[in-house]
């Protein structure tokens, strides 16, 4: 544990920090106040869209720029809060015209395009459930998620539709409508699809926000476990209270400030902090439609005068690799706060921030299930490089151990590793795993929510990440289920058995490695390896398919036949093999 804290000078001329005194903020914070700060009301009838867009218009800020999209050729498209409102109202009307009832699931499979905002906000406005899917997924993970989510409307691009959805459409009887963002309006529409632009153009431009309640499900995000199907995490409309409060307390985002979140909308960060939280703050968002590129990113930070920047460790490590000189070639006088999330942020990356930008990256920790940042390094507080920071005001977070009697007990010593546990009661806490109440119930014990992460906590309450309690893989910030990859591999005729683990990778944190046992009659070799790899990429999408495949003569199994991924990983990494008492072949 490094304890060399980075002290920071205040931001001269900038707005005052929302959170200046941590101890005092913890003492005085209440969620009731946070709710009032957002809505000015106490009645439990929140609607995320109304709080993120409608409220600013009611307060006379309709002309403020809400989002700026930047395309490959540096063309910029700006939308004001008023324009966002008009577009989302039109989309809400489209849903009603199509006969979609309140509470139905609407999914997006889109890049970072203006239509994403229209559909996301319109869906929430209409009281339907928004599920933003990761556009790098292949057909197989998409099919699983569209089925599990009972998705009735899918909004995607023509290219994604042809490549990923057309072939699985028959397996999706509940999918009533597919609306396309068209690439080429002169081409015929693929059968069974509708033109989103045409529907929006015909729709009425005013809508009366659906009377949602705080606890109504607003968002459906898919996350991965070790076994079985992905988990459909439901978040309520009240989540906006916590997303707004943390956008202020942690991201330190003020109304009118220029803010850039680099997360993909297909993961929870891209919605919670790429859309809802910052819009609720009345900020002005930058959205880069292109993929990562160091020079492009520095140019955006500089030219757009980004003030608050929320990014991820893999991107930071790629920037480091591109060299500090590239960053120093630009000036970032407007940039006043930088934060990171999603995977462990190494101490070197935190201090590299100081070298390259004159300020450290502030690590933050949360999960899809928590719906908002729970642990953070705050803008006004010193930063301990390598620590995830402290619990946000309004949340009690500890690391816990299980006693001999089977109870959970907070650990007082910083020397002992335990599981991160949070006291339920914050407004963005997930309300369930779709169709899996047992799993939801199993996430709670003794009045704690158990996060499935291992950490230490020091006497001052700083958390230091150790690892996961399960076998899920974090690669480039994406949470990947080994089970889902193993299942896809096993659909290849040559594969009898597969086991998937994460192996260390200097940039992505972890990379996916698969071990396969072949069926009789197949011979290991380069040909077969690339065939299986190609098969996995087609089904899963390149972003989640294994990077490496190794042939194995016998995967380690328990006596009950379960593959021991943990042992496989220990062998791969040269770590102690641990308790082998259940290994098959042992007496
Ligand atoms: C898992 C949650 C965070 C929202 C987007 C990802 C890992 C998250 C950190 C961090 C080390 C981190 C944890 C967590 N994680 N933040 N600052 N340091 N690990 O949400 O896909 O549900 O993933 O990401 O393992 O449980 P998610």
Report on this structure:
By secondary structure, the chain is of the alpha/beta class. Among the domains are: about 1-10 and about 20-45 and about 240-470, Rossmann fold, CATH 3.40.50.12780; about 480-575, 2-Layer Sandwich (GMP Synthetase, Chain A, domain 3), CATH 3.30.300. The protein is built from 18 helices and 28 strands. Strands 2-1-11-10-12-13-14-15-16 form a 9-stranded mixed beta sheet. Strands 17, 18, 19, 21, 22 and 23 form a 6-stranded antiparallel beta sheet that branches. Helix 2 (about 30-40) crosses helix 9 and helix 4 crosses helix 8. The two termini are about 40 Å apart. The mean pLDDT is about 95. 5'-O-[(S)-butoxy(hydroxy)phosphoryl]adenosine (WT7) binds next to helix 10, strand 14, strand 22 and strand 23. 5'-O-[(S)-butoxy(hydroxy)phosphoryl]adenosine binds near residues 388, 453 and 479.
Text of the CATH class of one domain? Alpha Beta
Major β-sheet strand ordering: 2-1-11-10-12-13-14-15-16
* Gyration radius from CA atoms, angstroms: 24 Å
Shape: globular
Q: Total strand count, please?
A: 28
CATH fourth-tier homologous superfamily of one domain? ANL, N-terminal domain
Distance linking N and C termini: 41 Å
| Small-molecule components bound | 5'-O-[(S)-butoxy(hydroxy)phosphoryl]adenosine
**Any idea of the CATH topology of one domain?**
Rossmann fold
Biggest sheet character: 9 strands, mixed
Low-confidence regions: none
Share of residues in helices: 25-40%
Query: How many H/I helices?
Result: 18
Secondary structure class reads alpha/beta
In CATH, the architecture of one domain is 3-Layer(aba) Sandwich
Strand content: 15-25%
Mean pLDDT over the residues: 95
């Amino acid at each position: 544990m490094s304890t060399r804290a980075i002290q920071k000078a205040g931001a001269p001329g900038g707005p005052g920090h929302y959170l200046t005194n941590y101890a005092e903020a913890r003492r005085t914070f209440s969620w009731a106040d946070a709710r009032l700060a957002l809505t000015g009301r106490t009645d439990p009838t929140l609607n995320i869209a109304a709080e993120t867009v409608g409220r600013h218009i009611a307060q006379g800020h309709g002309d403020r720029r809400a989002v700026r999209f930047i395309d490959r050729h540096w063309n910029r498209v700006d939308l004001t809060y008023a324009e966002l409102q008009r577009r989302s109202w039109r989309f809400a009307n489209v849903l009603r015209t199509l006969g979609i009832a309140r509470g139905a699931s609407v999914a997006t499979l889109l890049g970072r395009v203006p239509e994403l905002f229209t559909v996301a906000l319109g869906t929430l406005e209409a009281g339907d459930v928004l599920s933003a899917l990761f556009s790098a997924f292949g057909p197989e993970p998409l099919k699983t998620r569209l089925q599990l989510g009972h998705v009735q409307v899918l909004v995607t691009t023509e290219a994604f539709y042809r490549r990923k959805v057309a072939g699985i459409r028959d397996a999706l009887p509940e999918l009533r409508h597919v609306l396309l963002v068209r690439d080429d309006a002169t081409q015929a529409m693929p059968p069974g699809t509708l033109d989103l632009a045409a529907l929006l153009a015909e729709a009425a431009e005013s809508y009366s926000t659906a009377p949602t309640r705080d606890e109504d499900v607003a968002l459906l995000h898919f996350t991965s476990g070790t076994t079985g199907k992905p988990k459909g995490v439901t978040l309520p409309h009240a989540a906006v209270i916590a997303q707004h409060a943390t956008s202020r307390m942690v991201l330190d985002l003020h109304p009118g400030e220029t803010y850039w979140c680099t997360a993909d909308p297909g993961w929870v960060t891209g919605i919670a902090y790429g859309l809802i939280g910052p819009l609720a703050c009345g900020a002005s968002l930058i959205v880069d439609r292109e993929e990562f590129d160091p020079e492009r990113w520095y140019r955006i930070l500089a030219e757009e005068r980004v003030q608050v920047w929320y990014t991820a460790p893999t991107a930071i490590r790629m920037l480091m690799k591109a060299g500090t000189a590239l960053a120093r070639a630009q000036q970032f006088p407007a940039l006043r706060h930088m934060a990171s999330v999603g995977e462990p942020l190494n101490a070197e990356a935190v201090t590299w921030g100081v070298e390259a930008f004159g300020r450290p990256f502030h690590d933050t920790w949360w999960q899809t299930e928590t719906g908002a940042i729970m642990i953070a390094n705050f803008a006004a507080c010193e930063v301990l490089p390598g620590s995830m920071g402290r619990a946000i005001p309004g949340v009690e977070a500890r690391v816990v151990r299980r006693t001999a009697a089977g109870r959970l007990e907070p650990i007082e010593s910083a020397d002992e590793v335990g599981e991160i546990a949070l006291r339920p009661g914050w407004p963005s806490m997930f309300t369930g795993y779709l169709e899996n109440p047992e799993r939801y119930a199993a996430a709670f014990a003794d009045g704690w929510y158990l996060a499935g992460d291992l950490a230490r906590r020091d006497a001052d309450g700083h958390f230091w990440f150790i690892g996961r309690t399960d076998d899920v893989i974090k690669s480039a910030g994406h949470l990947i289920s080994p089970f889902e990859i193993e299942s896809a591999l096993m659909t290849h005729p040559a594969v009898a058995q597969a086991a998937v683990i994460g192996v260390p990778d200097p940039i992505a944190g972890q990379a996916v490695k698969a071990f396969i046992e072949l069926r009789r009659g197949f011979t290991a070799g380069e040909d077969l390896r690339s065939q299986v790899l190609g098969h996995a990429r087609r089904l899963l999408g390149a972003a989640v398919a294994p990077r490496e495949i190794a042939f194995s003569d016998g995967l380690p199994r328990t006596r009950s036949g379960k593959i021991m991924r943990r042992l496989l990983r220990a062998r791969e990494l040269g770590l102690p093999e641990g308790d082998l008492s259940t290994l098959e072949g042992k007496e």
